[in-house]
């Protein structure tokens, strides 16, 4: 590049910036285009043009310009952020999320990423909600051999994609028969009829059919609250699920996220009663009232492999009870033990639940003033929760403590209170 074209390109950029400042985005984009012709390897010109395109809502061109920048400068945080916005607007929510995580990894402001991630999650929820009962809906209800009706993917999904979203037909507060009767009594005749179409695994004379249907299909939100959703109710159980269920209290919706890649045509499963860490015998005992014997991949393992699987799941189940883990008086061993449990989950093929262990490690590292390790484990936790519960899930992903842990960990009361340590463990 000769000095003349460099100067000319720079003055075009400055002219573009002035036009941008006066909101003439079209004129600004033209100047940046000319500068790009003179200096095609300079990332700032497509970066600026990308911004002008974002202002003009020309999302595809903005996306392309950000991609050009990232080809020249792979960790350009402004390009990652701008492309995330362009992708969100084009409904490439998966791509937008990936850009935001790359933005964080490249040193971008976590607070900014959290807020943008929430906007992406909201846009995705709206898009999935609008798609229900249209050809772009990603699932369909169909018979599932040996399991009655089931729900099947109609297109591929990746981990973290929102597959289903649904407002419940009713919410039952309290676990008594009267609480349930109150909720059902409030249904319109039409909704009651729709509810009565659902499967009833207690189809004997000992209960009112509505109670049997509630038992068969309702999802527990907490120990005292359950909801009934018409479409989600058709999802069958697996001890090796490909979906994670999350309740979004703010919008009163039940959501199902893909836990792993799902191919078009694959059946969708979630784990009833969060049974994944029980042994096969325990799972089958708890599933017996639903009137089926689970024959999922894990339940169908040959005897010796099943024994190993049971052992892993038992260990995980014990470890979720904090007091059973390596005591925090041995912090390095504690963090290593947590990492081992995450590895154990993966070996068992389970794609959920690691956040309990990573969040715990984040707090231990924070306590001992190892900011890099605390950041590493916090981001692991955040990423997992975004994928399994959604970026806008206040209860799991962005509650106050989590936000502080992500944005201002040193401001937390426990930060640096313990003996200064450096933790080597990583996944
Ligand atoms: C919430 S409903 C699921 C949808 C149901 N298959 C239907 O036809 O509407 C629960 C019932 O589905 C059946 N089911 C669920 N998971 C199953 C599985 N893994 N194997 C066999 N049956 C299953 C059982 O009859 C269970 O009581």
Describe the structure.
The structure is a single chain. The chain is mainly alpha-helical. The chain folds into 3 domains: 3-130, Tetratricopeptide repeat domain (Serine Threonine Protein Phosphatase 5, Tetratricopeptide repeat, Alpha Horseshoe); 135-285, Beta-clip-like, CATH 2.170.270; 321-411. Helix content is 50%, strand content 10%. It is built from 16 helices and 10 strands. The chain has helices at 3-21, 25-38, 44-55, 59-72, 77-89, 93-105, 110-131, 177-185, 189-196, 209-217, 280-287, 303-319, 331-347, 355-367, 371-389, 400-407, and strands at residues 139-143, 149-153, 162-166, 170-173, 219-222, 225-228, 236-237, 243-248, 253-258, 269-270. The strands form 4 sheets. It has a 3-stranded antiparallel beta sheet. Strands 4-6-5 form a 3-stranded antiparallel beta sheet. A hairpin with a 4-residue loop joins strand 8 (243-248) and strand 9. The radius of gyration is 26 Å and the shape is globular. The model has no long low-confidence stretch (mean pLDDT 95). Bound molecules: S-adenosylmethionine. The site of S-adenosylmethionine (SAM) has 18 residues, from strand 2, helix 10 and strand 7.
């Amino acid at each position: 590049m000769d000095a003349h074209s460099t100067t000319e390109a720079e003055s075009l950029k400055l002219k573009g910036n002035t036009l941008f400042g006066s909101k003439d985005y079209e004129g600004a984009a033209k100047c940046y285009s000319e500068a790009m012709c003179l200096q095609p390897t300079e990332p700032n010109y497509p970066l600026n043009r990308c911004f002008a395109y974002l202002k003009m809502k020309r999302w595809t061109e903005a996306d392309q310009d950000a991609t050009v920048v990232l080809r020249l400068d792979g960790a350009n945080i402004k390009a990652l952020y701008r492309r995330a916005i362009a992708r969100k607007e084009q409904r490439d929510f998966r791509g937008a999320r990936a850009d935001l995580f790359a933005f964080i990894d490249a040193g971008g402001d976590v607070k900014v990423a959290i807020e943008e991630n929430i906007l992406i999650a909201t846009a995705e929820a709206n898009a999935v909600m609008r798609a229900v009962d249209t050809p772009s809906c990603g699932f369909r209800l169909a018979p599932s051999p040996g399991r009655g009706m089931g729900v099947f993917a109609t297109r591929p999904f990746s981990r973290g994609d929102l597959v289903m979203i649904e407002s419940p037909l009713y919410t039952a507060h309290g676990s008594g028969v009267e609480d349930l009767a109150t909720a059902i009594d409030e249904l319109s005749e039409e909704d009651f009829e729709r509810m009565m179409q659902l499967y009833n695994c207690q189809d004997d004379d000992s209960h009112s059919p509505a109670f049997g249907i509630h038992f068969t299909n309702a999802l527990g939100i907490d120990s005292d609250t359950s909801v009934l959703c018409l479409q989600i109710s058709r999802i069958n159980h697996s001890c090796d699920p490909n979906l994670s269920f999350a309740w979004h209290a703010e919008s009163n919706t039940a959501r199902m996220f893909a836990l792993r890649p799902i191919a078009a045509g694959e059946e969708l499963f979630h784990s009833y009663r969060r049974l994944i860490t029980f042994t096969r015998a325990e799972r089958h005992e708890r599933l017996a009232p639903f009137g089926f014997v689970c024959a999922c991949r894990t339940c169908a393992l040959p005897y010796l492999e099943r024994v190993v699987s049971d052992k892993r799941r038992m260990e995980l189940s014990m470890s979720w009870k904090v007091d059973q883990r390596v005591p925090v008086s041995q912090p390095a061993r504690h963090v290593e033990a947590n990492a081992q449990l995450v590895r154990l989950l993966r070996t068992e093929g389970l794609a959920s639940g690691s956040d309990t262990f990573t969040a715990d490690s984040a707090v231990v590292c924070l306590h001992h003033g190892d900011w890099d390790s605390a950041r590493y484990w916090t981001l692991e936790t955040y990423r997992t929760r975004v994928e399994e519960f959604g970026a806008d899930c206040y209860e799991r992903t962005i509650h106050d403590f989590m936000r502080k842990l992500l944005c201002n960990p040193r401001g937390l009361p426990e930060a640096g209170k313990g003996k200064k340590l450096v933790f080597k463990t990583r996944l």
